[in-house]
Amino acid sequence: MEKEGFSELFIYPPYQFRSKIDAMITNFHLPKSTLFMLVSAFAGQERLVEAYKEAIRDSYRFYSFGDAMLVFRKGN
Fold it and tell me: Residue ranges of the chain with pLDDT lower than 50?
């Protein structure tokens, strides 16, 4: 079933995911970006900020061709 149109959905904390997914693999997105907000809603903003601090300290690469991370849903 094909659909067209726009969505008003904007995922950011404190959005509650309804899926049963417990983890995701993603790259290190730009801080203050909408993708960072989406991952923050999934994993928890405090946990994500701490992961970014460690990534910066260890010289991880950011953006689309940078390093990836495995994040778990907040509460797990």
Answer: none
